[in-house]
Write a structure and sequence with these properties.
mainly alpha, 79% helix, elongated, PHBA_efflux_AaeB/fusaric-R, membrane, Fusaric acid resistance protein
Amino acid sequence: MPGNAPRESLRSVLANWAQTEGLAWVYIFKAALAAMLTLWIAMRLDMPQPRTAMTTVFVVMQPQSGMVLAKSFYRFCGTMVGLAVMLVFISLFSQQPVLFLTATALWVGICTAGAARNRNFRSYGFVLAGYTAALIGIPAAQHPDGAFLSALTRVAEVTIGILCAGTVSALVFPQHAGEQIKATVRTRFSGFVDYVCRALSGRMDRSQIETTNAAFVTDIVGFEAVRSVAVFENPETRMKSGRLARLNSEFMSASTRFHALHQLMNRLRETGSAVTIAALEPYFREVAPLLGKSGEPVMNAADAAHATAQLAAFKAALPRRIRVTRTELEARPGFAQLEFDTASELLYRFVDDLLAYTQTYASLAVPMHARERWFAGYVPKTNLLVAAIAGLRAAVVILALGAFWIATAWPSGGTMVLNAAAVCALASASPRPTLMAFQMACGTVLATIAGMIVVFGLYPRMDGFLLLSVTLVPFLLLGSYLSTRRGLAGVGVGYCIFFCFLAGPDNLVHYDPAGFINDAIALILSMIVSALAFAVLLPTDAPWLRRLLLRDLRREVVLACRGRLTRLATRFESRTRDLLSQINALPAARPELRRDALQWLFAVLEVGHAVIDLRHELSAVGHDARHAAGTPWRRAIAATFAAVTHLFDRPDEARFDTALSSTSRAIADVRTLLDTAHPREERHRLQRILSHLHFIRTALLDPQSPLEPFAGNAREAGKAREAGKAREAREGAHHAT
């Protein structure tokens, strides 16, 4: 036994290394293998610039097969679009350098804005549409007579690189995004169940709840990114893509609903609503055991079917049980009926959302299922102004460098301009574009030194592809290794791409030291200028960007009040999480700023979700005279929507007071109508409307909300008014005597 302990320890260490650092080394050797395979094929096909195909490998190579295929797909689409646009520009402006560079700058600016607006690998298609136009057009414009053949040759070289990267990634020790999705689904379900159990039992403080919800946001955004590339890997993932998107959406809805329920119960505890809390806590304790199988946590989709059956039975019996409890409590002193109705309504809706989430999870156990029909996808979008600024910045850089090229007639000026187009587009999609461009410049400096050694020191002393491979592989492995290090990823990307650009062999090698140095200077200068542009022209770490994104986050409540109801909840959920992830990715996102953004997320989700539920209830009311849009209670609710919209658009004390008073007035009007309502279904619907209005009011008055300063001022003003009324009453009594 003592001898087995070291052996077990070594085995666990090796297993852990294989799952972490080992996977990085697999990727490093796969990248080098794909690059050399691409170089060999391009040389065998007698391509004029095999280094272009080799460079493409490092541009599209990713650790997972689905990522490579997705990136390759969008790169090919972007390449074809860029080719078509540049052929048009060459035919129109090849004899006018200023007009040609201006048109190219505008096109690159539009593509860069598109890349900044659309994230994940979809943005890469925009990057390539702009970069390919510059890559093909700028050299071809100098020799327009061979522009068409040159463009087609460049596309063929890029295609070879794409195919080789995808083939090596899929066949050699493949790593599939589908496996990551399965692990994420299992981990997230068990983590959410644990969160629900701990929060309902009171074992989580505010900081733990915030940390958990922040992790949920990261998980939601990352899950959608992985799902979007996993569909490229195998038919099974494509068959379940709709359910996976639905699972992400239903998880967002369930987590939002639970947070609202948990916050409401905390408010009831603070206000001393002991009767309501004691009546509902037994129901809360029943929820957690339903999310397991035979007392054990759910481990896979098949086990989730048992939890689904238990939740469905609990949900079916819940309304009748709640009504019985409510009847028993009505005669008790201190019973706040509206608080009980609001909390019980939230409980029912949480169970309903949790059931939907569990049903979709259980459906993943079979290849085909009716829940696959899901059309409300998660679409990440960047603020239009931010995207436009990114495009304008790229256009300015291209125009400035183009003007320098025309003024100096520098032979490597074209290289400088086309590389600036690539760097601006690639870096604009990064949360820290200045650092990314600077790191790429450092990688290019390293690539220049390595390239000089290879081109002028080693190439003249070798013959044959075998010796060429032995020479290049160590240098390629160095770049791939750097790209896998978290703090040096930009250095590795710059090294890999521009080592191939500078030192990649062509079928006819030219030993031109002056040209090599000129190209290297042009590459480094374009990156430095790009980094300066990102640092000076409306930088992403400036406070204005955070304020802009925070306003976008708050304005999601405006969407909830005014947007079209069809699939509104899904759009609202995904956009709020996506905006928070953008805010947290900003370079200046300090812990206190992250916490502030998370507080606004909670406030937006609570109020926005309640508004959407309220609008759904209003859309289902009858069309008789008592429910018409012009009735006092409908006008009061419309005024509440308008006041809440104005409050979250630009929060201040006056708007807060207006929102609070409008909500209170709407509650009073609905109560008046409820007293005269007779049909059972009508009363239940009005009770639900009343519950949503009451929840909006409690969310506005939440002491942990970012609106608390305005609420505090409102409470102080209310106390002052009450004191004034009491003083006037005393003075009136004094005068009367």
